[in-house]
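Something for you to look into today, if you have time. Could you write out one complete protein record for me, on any chain you like? Leave the record below and I will have a look.
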Amino acid sequence: VTVPKQQAGKVTLTVKYLRGTPIRTPLTMEAWIDRVEGRKTFVSGELRNGDVVTATATGIFISVDHQIVKQ
């Protein structure tokens, strides 16, 4: 997740493995922003093998203004 002129640092990332995920097989990864609260961005995602969800993930990312951090 990036914000214009800012970068996001990961605060938490949780992955739930629901089923075995095959290797050497085309998989689909999809992620979306659930909500933004100030500098926090809450993100969710899925890993799918066809129509089967094999893993889900949630994360919280914090926007960091590196110009302020350098001061």
Notes: The chain is about 5% helix and 60% strand.
